[in-house]
Amino acid sequence: MLKIIGLKAYRKGYTGCAEFEDRYELFTFSRHTYTPIQTYPAAAFENRRHFISAMGKFIRTSFFLKDPVKLSLITPESLAAAISS
Questions:
Q1: What predicted TM-score, i.e. pTM, was given to this entire model?
Q2: How far apart are alpha carbons 83 and 70 in whole angstroms?
């Protein structure tokens, strides 16, 4: 199980941030393909809020969702539902 904590839709896909039990992962999803861009170990941060605060130096805080969205599988439909929630 993963949680989507940041997401932005583009014409042909998404850029997002997923929270796994042991890491945070920035990713792109385009043409039904999930591509990790950068991985950060969860142990390097006190909690999700600390991670978002640290990433706020590089990524607009509006990129991050108010509440994480739990997903079992990343699909175009699940990401569309996550961005609308």
A1: 0.91
A2: 12
